[in-house]
């Protein structure tokens, strides 16, 4: 049906390229009229398909508007949390389950509801964890007899105790349970949570407020800020306290909102919540009352490093949160009446008067969804955020799509055999490691020989897995061998264009779709083959290595052995060259190419980091010279310390160094702006993109 309606669309698109370009460039392309009368020819749903192809980043907004028009606004507006309604649906045998989401904590609302219902003296709660199961069990047994309420927090942290919880809930009946008894549970989504408890429980979820204005407003209408005795609790320093209070509130909202921007916001998604904010503002009041001078350093340390920073496990995120806080807690916030947290408008400053109501009025002027610059990011980050949201939505739609009918099965099998045959035809044979070892033997003065052999061995292992699994899949489709669960998983991944799980286990990290991954793998194999046949290249393709750190260590090791310097006294220094490939190798160190910049771009004219061009999300770097230097002689200067990651995702398994397994090395790049600017922009180098 869609095909009939869109007949001639391709020809029309080609004839009206300039008009379609205007749609593409528009800030709201989902609402713009389509050229050549296609507005009337396409249904509302078919418009979504065009938006998906043309501007994927606007798909989620377009779908929301589509649902609003066809079904009504209530289907896109989340209902507020109403504990009393959930309580009315429950009874003494039915538990009430809060499904948690990052940034939301229902305990405050539950304790208040408990007081309102007169259960304060008969309400007990415990956060589950190691060894807490026995205490929780005795709480439940006592409350069952006395008719009390029990809340078990963070059930997802006590996986081993959940079967016991299942037995307890299954054992509830009117003979052993008082009618007033209620069991409240809180848990993040977990595949280990007992299904029987999920089925019987009354389920609630409380999404944290979204949007800068809502976040700020929430801070001011909740305790302790709404209490006059707290807000006016710094006699003689009322103005300073109220301004710093607003600064920390704004900081709290900004770090919450940055989570929407994925890896550009934070490498790891942290669960900052109201309790972090409450302890920070209470400590602020304490410091202002106890000391004559305002202790900015202590306030920033406790807020940034302890209260919020206690959740931060990644070193680069820790650097970021401290840098962001500097903008909101400093001397100018108190002394400069015209101080702005972001210099794009007065709504991002402080109100002239410092009464509680003045702050609430000022918050009303703050946009719900301000531009990314307010969070320290470039305007392009908004495209990245919207695109990631849209891709997550389409991935979820694919997962809920039902299996194909029998007629489609035959076509699927033909397609799988074709795909497997195509990939196998493209892949070269495995490297002959024994022959390579003879040509490149272990040499004290040339560590790169060892690097080459090790890389060949790693890629051979990956090649072996890819080839054997594809051959087995072809046999299984033809009925020669049984289609095992592993082969079925392989087939499903290939049909969806994803990298199969069994390949990932022995592969280098990659976020690319399957066709691009195969092309990338072949390029890497060709690089090693060229090295084997023609000797060391003058400029290395850094992205092509399986284990990048081994290559970098080999380069430093060559210098250390030649100069007879202990390797632990050496570090890399960096020089960005002006061309994309150096034909002659350097005397020491290595020339590397193939890097991309995320969050910024390399300004080739001025030789410094620059702002991104509109709609260009990543920029390729010229050749970078990495040369060893003695630590004592290394000078950072005004350069920006820029992390290099393997993929756009940035996060990985946390290593003992405090860095993620996705992290490779910190580069020092020239900058004509303060490092804080690029830290807030989350500027980083990448070995590969996701396309």
TrEMBL record:
Gene Ontology molecular function:
dynein intermediate chain binding; dynein light intermediate chain binding; minus-end-directed microtubule motor activity
Domain (Dynein heavy chain AAA lid): residue spans on this chain: 241-381
Question: Boundaries of each Dynein heavy chain region D6 P-loop domain copy?
Answer: 92-205
In this chain the Dynein heavy chain C-terminal domain maps to 392-687
Domain of life, per lineage: Eukaryota
Q: Could you state one GO cellular component term attached to this entry? A: dynein complex
Give the matching Pfam families.
Answer: AAA_lid_11, Dynein_C, Dynein_heavy
> What InterPro entries does its record include?
AAA_lid_11, AAA_lid_11_sf, DHC, Dynein_C, Dynein_C_barrel, Dynein_heavy_D6_P-loop, P-loop_NTPase
Which Gene Ontology BP terms does the record give? Answer: microtubule-based movement
This chain's protein is named Dynein heavy chain 12, axonemal
Biological source species = Eumeta variegata (Bagworm moth)
């Amino acid at each position: 049906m869609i095909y009939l309606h869109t007949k001639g669309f391709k020809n029309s698109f080609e004839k009206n390229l300039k008009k379609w370009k205007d749609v593409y460039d528009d800030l709201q392309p989902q609402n713009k009229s389509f050229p050549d009368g296609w507005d009337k020819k396409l249904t509302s749903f078919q418009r979504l398909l065009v938006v998906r192809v043309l501007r994927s980043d606007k798909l989620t907004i377009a779908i929301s508007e589509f649902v609003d028009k066809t079904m009504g606004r209530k289907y896109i507006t989340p209902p507020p949390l109403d504990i009393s309604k959930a309580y009315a649906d429950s009874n003494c045998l039915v538990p009430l389950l809060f499904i948690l989401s990052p940034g939301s904590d229902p305990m405050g609302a539950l304790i208040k509801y408990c007081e309102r219902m007169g259960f304060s003296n008969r309400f007990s709660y415990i956060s589950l964890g190691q060894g807490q199961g026995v205490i929780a069990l005795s709480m439940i047994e006592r409350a069952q007899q006395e008719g009390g309420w029990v809340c078990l927090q963070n059930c997802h942290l006590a996986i081993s105790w959940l079967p016991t919880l299942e037995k307890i809930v299954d054992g509830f009946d009117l003979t052993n349970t008082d009618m007033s008894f209620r069991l409240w549970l809180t848990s993040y989504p977990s595949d280990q949570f007992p299904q029987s408890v999920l089925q019987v429980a009354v389920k609630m979820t409380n999404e944290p407020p979204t949007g800068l204005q809502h976040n700020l407003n929430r801070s001011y209408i909740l305790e302790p800020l709404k209490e006059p005795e707290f807000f006016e609790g710094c006699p003689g320093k009322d103005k300073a306290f109220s301004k710093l209070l607003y600064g920390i509130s704004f900081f709290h909202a900004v770090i919450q909102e940055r989570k929407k921007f994925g890896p550009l916001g934070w490498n790891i998604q942290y669960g900052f919540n109201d309790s972090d904010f409450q302890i920070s503002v209470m400590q602020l009041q304490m410091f202002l009352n106890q000391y004559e001078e305002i202790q900015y350093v202590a306030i920033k340390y406790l807020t940034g490093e302890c209260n919020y920073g206690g959740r931060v496990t990644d070193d680069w995120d820790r650097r970021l949160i401290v840098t962001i806080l500097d903008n909101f807690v400093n001397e100018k916030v108190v002394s400069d009446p015209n101080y702005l947290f972001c210099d794009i408008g007065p709504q991002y400053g402080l109100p002239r008067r410092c009464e509680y109501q003045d702050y609430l009025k000022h918050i009303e002027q703050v946009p719900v969804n301000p531009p990314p610059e307010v969070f320290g990011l470039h305007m392009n980050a908004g495209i990245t955020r919207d695109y990631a949201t849209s891709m997550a939505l389409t991935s979820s739609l694919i997962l809920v799509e039902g299996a194909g009918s029998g007629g489609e099965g035959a076509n699927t099998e033909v397609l799988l055999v074709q795909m497997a045959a195509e990939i196998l035809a493209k892949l070269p044979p495995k490297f002959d490691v024994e022959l390579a070892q003879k040509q490149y033997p272990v040499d004290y003065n040339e560590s790169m020989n060892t690097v080459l052999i090790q890389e060949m061995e790693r890629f051979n292992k990956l090649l072996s897995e890819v080839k054997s699994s594809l051959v087995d899949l072809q046999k299984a489709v033809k009925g020669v061998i049984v289609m095992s669960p592993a082969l079925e998983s392989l087939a499903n991944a290939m049909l969806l264009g994803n990298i199969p799980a069994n390949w990932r286990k022995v592969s280098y990290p990659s976020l690319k779709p399957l066709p691009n991954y195969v092309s990338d793998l072949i390029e890497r194999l060709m690089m090693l083959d060229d090295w084997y046949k023609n000797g060391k290249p003058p400029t290395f393709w850094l992205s092509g290595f399986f284990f990048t750190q081994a290559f970098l260590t080999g380069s430093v090791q060559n210098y250390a052995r030649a100069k007879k310097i202990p390797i632990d006294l050496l570090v890399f220094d960096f020089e960005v060259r002006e061309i994309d490939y150096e034909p002659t190798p350097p005397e020491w160190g290595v020339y590397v190419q193939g890097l991309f910049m995320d969050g910024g771009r390399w300004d080739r004219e001025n030789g410094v980091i620059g702002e991104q061009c509109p709609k260009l999300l990543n920029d390729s770097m010229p050749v970078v010279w990495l040369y060893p230097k003695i630590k004592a002689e290394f000078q950072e200067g005004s350069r920006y310390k820029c992390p290099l990651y393997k993929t756009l995702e940035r996060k990985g398994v946390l290593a003992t160094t405090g860095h993620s397994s996705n992290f490779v090395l910190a580069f020092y790049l020239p900058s004509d702006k303060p490092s804080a600017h690029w830290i807030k922009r989350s500027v980083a180098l990448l070995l590969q993109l996701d396309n």
